[in-house]
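Title: [Solved] Group 1 truncated hemoglobin 3D structure

Original question kept below for reference.
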Amino acid sequence: MAETSLYYKLGGQKAIKAVVEEFYRRMLEDELVNELFKGIDMNRLKAHQTAFLSYALGGPVEYDGRTLREGHKGLNITSEQYERMIRIMNDTLKTFNVSTDDRIKIESFLRSVKPFVVGH
Ligand code: HEM
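Solution (posted by the thread starter after getting help):
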């Protein structure tokens, strides 16, 4: 049987929504990364939040938006900002009692897409 995705393991949509809210609350409070969200409309940000985490957790995303490379073009996200985001995600997941193993999986996923998001 296929391994249950983290999305379901963490409690499905309701739990993910709570994690997403907290993750973005922290992102928008962080001086190193919050400038990247200036001028981004809330609907966009919500879509971003959902895609961002559901992808990372292997949830049932029906994503037909732009590719990650397209979505971040012109933002010039730095490696330092990306690392900060990974830390904020990790801290947030800890708050929600996500296990070390599962946090490592999520971190690996986030690292795997880094080249599409950073530096362009
Ligand atoms: C430091 C890390 C990141 C920052 C600061 C960031 C920020 C942003 C911003 C500001 C946008 C909106 C661009 C626009 O409206 O023109 C965007 C788009 C997007 N981001 Fe991120 N992002 C990050 C990492 C990620 C990661 C890791 C994922 C997925 C796992 C992701 C998924 C997306 C998607 C799917 C879009 C496209 C949304 C669309 O085209 O409507 N982002 N990101």
